[in-house]
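Input/output pair, single chain:
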Amino acid sequence: MALPPKKAPAKAPIKAAAKAASAQKKPAAKAVDFEAVELKRIAAATMTETGYTFVSSDSEITQKLQAEGLIVLNIRMIDEDGNVAAKATEEGLVKAGAQVETAKSLFDSAQVEETEDEDAEDVEDEDEDAEDEDAEDVEDEEAVGDFVIEDNIPINAVKLRKRASIYPFDKLAVGQSFFIPATDERPDPAKSLASTVANASKRFAVPTGETKTSARTGKEVQVLKYTRKFTIREVEGGARVWRKL
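Output:
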């Protein structure tokens, strides 16, 4: 008598289906909100005794935070890399989740004001007009306590202190370059010195007499003609700066 045929063993689960099921269980990677991260960094610095930190004024994130009124910049405070001082506004502190009341005294005592050349000229003109009006009401060399009030003393021109550059931008001819090595303090000089190189190009720019509307501030600004231009690129061991104009 013949034996009945044996049943074939069940097939193993398909690997592709198992992988798909495994992939569905993994949570999707959460995107990093770099704008929020930068705002929190600036807010944290605002709450310190120093009251500010340095940022790149050319950064899109910096420009967006400034346009939204979350931070203010002080273009008169620049570090050796060309970055400007920045601190969070009270609105920025709130959005960053910082303790506004704790930071308020620091904010008031070390406030960083955003200044521009055209605003400085307006303030200087207003001061001059106010002094002219006040001069009409006093006599020449009228003594008030230990001070003497005088007329017709010209106002000295404002002198801006310029930091001497540690890089030889002035000496570069077109096509020449110099090397900046990477260090522990500055492991990526091509990135950290990008704003310094951009500002070096602006130092050699001259006004054309024309104006345009700034896309960032909405104000009328002068159109500049660059007489020299520099660029920086990452190279082995650091970065290299070239003069291309």
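The radius of gyration is 30 Å. The beta strands are 53-55, 71-78, 84-88, 142-144, 147-149, 177-181, 205-213, 220-226, 230-235, 238-243.
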